[in-house]
Amino acid sequence: MFNRQTVIVTGAGRGIGASTALLFAQQGARVVVNDLDAALAAETAQLIADAGGQAIHFAGSVTDNELPDRLMQAAVDAFGQINVLVNNAGYTWDGMAHKITGKQWQAILDVHLTAPFRMIQAAAPYLRDAAKAELESGAPFSNRCIVNVSSTSGLHGNIGQANYAAAKLGVVGLTKTVAKEWGALGIRCNAVAFGFVDTRLTRPQEAQEEAIEIDGRQLMLGIPRKVRDLLDSDIGQRIPLARPAAVEEAAGGIVLIASPLASYITGHVLEVTGGMGI
Ligand SMILES: NC(=O)c1ccc[n+]([C@@H]2O[C@H](COP(=O)([O-])OP(=O)(O)OC[C@H]3O[C@@H](n4cnc5c(N)ncnc54)[C@H](O)[C@@H]3O)[C@@H](O)[C@H]2O)c1
């Protein structure tokens, strides 16, 4: 479905992003793998190459002002064009609304909202100029789209996540606006909102030694065991499918909405939640 198409996935060193990069490659895409963690980004690209696909890795933080332009340039240098941009990179830094610090608020807004916006701006000339050229020559539009990763925390709010919820709903507004602004060029923009996907962001904090370094500070990732036990205890009531998603299932939602089969779907928020919240 993605033969000769170039797909950029941010935060693709592990978790949902890595699975998404692998699935796009299985569907024929040439993939640009970004992650904060250079070794993991290289590992995902190597897995794709080992399976006979094409990929490059490009390490760095999506919050770095210089990164979006450099990432787009690397994609075009390697593969000549850009078709799909997946804004997936991110992490959580939870706290109750009355206790969230300015730094904590800003860091989460930066990674989940400002970075996708800057990435979209950096991709604009490549996506839009190629589409304009097709329009002028009368050729049908190629598949071009953006997929922004959102969350049920954004759609419904979530205790302890005022910063994350604000950013994840903000990205929905960004998605719908770009869908309206770029639709005439055949460029689609959608969001995928996940609920509960089994990754280090949702595993019990105490059962893993997972941290992310932000400004020289180690932030522990995961959900406190007490909270996770509470979530597990009524999972059947909260989630019709009664289990968390595997990363492969989360990736399926992203690839589905990016695919040419979704050519008339734009401005949509696809909820990949096992039915949570219906
Ligand atoms: N796991 C869930 O249940 C869930 C639910 C809703 C939304 N999400 C969203 O899905 C996305 C992926 O999360 P995940 O669960 O796979 O987490 P993860 O921690 O397994 O993977 C996220 C990846 O993003 C990278 N990353 C973090 N900050 C970065 C930055 N500034 N620049 C580049 N890379 C960066 C990390 O190094 C990591 O490899 C995130 O946007 C997250 O908010 C996850």
List keywords for this structure.
278 residues, alpha/beta, Rossmann fold, seven-stranded parallel sheet, two-stranded antiparallel sheet, 9 strands, 45% helix, globular, binds nicotinamide-adenine-dinucleotide
Structure, explained:
- This protein has one domain: Rossmann fold (3-Layer(aba) Sandwich).
- The mean pLDDT is 97.
- Helix 1 packs parallel to helix 2, helix 3 packs parallel to helix 4 and helix 4 (102-137) packs parallel to helix 6.
- Strand 2 (30-35), helix 2 (38-50) and strand 3 (54-59) form a beta-alpha-beta unit.
- The longest helix has 36 residues, at 102-137.
- The radius of gyration is 18 Å and the shape is globular.
- Helix content is 45%, strand content 17%.
- With 278 residues, it is an alpha/beta fold.
- It binds nicotinamide-adenine-dinucleotide.
**Biggest sheet architecture:** 7 strands, parallel
Bin the strand percentage.
Answer: 15-25%
Q: Tell me the number of helical segments per DSSP (H or I, 4 or more residues long).
A: 9
In the sheet with the most strands, the strands line up as 3-2-1-4-5-6-9
Radius of gyration from the alpha-carbon trace, in angstroms: 18 Å
CATH architecture call: 3-Layer(aba) Sandwich
CATH fold field value:
Rossmann fold
CATH level-1 class: Alpha Beta
Number of DSSP-assigned strands: 9
Distance between the termini: 31 Å
Could you list the spans in which at least 5 consecutive residues all have pLDDT below 50? none
The oligomeric state of the chains shown is single chain
Distinct ligands: nicotinamide-adenine-dinucleotide
The figure for the number of domains is: 1
Q: What is the assigned CATH homologous superfamily?
A: NAD(P)-binding Rossmann-like Domain
- Which word captures the global form? globular
Task: Provide the helix percentage.
Answer: 40-55%
